[in-house]
Amino acid sequence: MDRIQYYEKHELLRLVTRDGFVVNALLVTNKEDKRDDALRAPILLQVHGLLGHFLAHGTPRVLPHALLERGFDSLSINTRLATAGQITGQGIFDDTINDIDVAVQFLEGEGFSNIFVLGYSLGAAMVVNWAASRQNERIRGIVLEGAVYSGPTSQKKRFTTWGSDPSYERVYVRAKELLGDDPHDSRDDQTFVAYQCRGSDRTPGSSEIFTYKTWWFMSGPEARRAIVHEHIDEIEIPILLVRGEADFLTESWEPEALAEIVRKAGNRKVRVKQIPNARHDCMENPEAMVSEITKMFLEHSVDPYIRQPAAK
Asked: Is pLDDT above 90 for 300?
């Protein structure tokens, strides 16, 4: 059978969450599709890492187009942690559950029946937090790319390894003092710079900017929802964990340890794949990465319409 030529259709969307945040989203589809066929085909909901889809150079920007070449549509969302959300104070990790909710509701409202959710980097922790407390028969599986065992533990390790200024402990003491007994609703927030927390000098590339509130919910010792291994055992749908073999932000044992937690909880539909020739961004090896996602689509979709690959 001849392979089909795909013509990309891009739709920029503004989705409003239950708490009033506006999620910017990009729907990438084949404009030649018949609607009924498109709604039966697998579609990927992509949740970015820290920077967001309009700033990141790898998976968030490249994956939707690579998927369409294989015949699959996607919806990419910028959560409240995108575009400097951790600096402005709006990027509260716990609240990103509302951002994923509104995206899934949009896809359901359109009629898509085979929805998969991918979380990249910090987005993987967001997706675990979301999937651990949501039941939805149209969600067929999740993909976790570059997932850490625990966000707060990883952050503390980086701060300690590089000798950050201020230290992880000093940030915690100041945040607790400033935010008080109700950190989420506290109006007393400030922006701060953590120098030398990602490298051995005080240059911008080795430093990070947060507000105390965003740090508290994403990286602090009481950021319970960002501790992936404490919640991943609640997920009952298929899970694919992918990690670049040369990933410098996660260690090789982390996806395997997370998968073992899931298996012990009774979910045997979990698979780990180390992507060769890739670092934290698995789309450095697009053929291997997209092949793993496609395999998951084909294994776990229900009565899907499967298109032929795009013509070259």
From this structure: yes
Structure tokens at 111: 């009629």
Which regions of the chain does DSSP assign to beta strands (E)? 8-16, 22-30, 43-47, 73-78, 115-120, 139-145, 191-194, 208-211, 239-244, 270-275
So what's the pLDDT on residue 108? 95
SS (H, E, C) 287-309: HHHHHHHHHHHHHHCCCCCCCCC
**Dihedral sign from CA coordinates of 222, 249, 25, 189:** positive
Q: How far apart are CA 218 and CA 216, in angstroms?
A: 6
For the chain, the domains span: 8-150+227-300, 153-218
11 Cβ contact partners less than 8 Å away, ≥ 6 residues apart: 26, 27, 29
The topology under which CATH files domain 8-150+227-300 is: Rossmann fold (3.40.50)
pLDDT surpassing 60 at residue 2: no
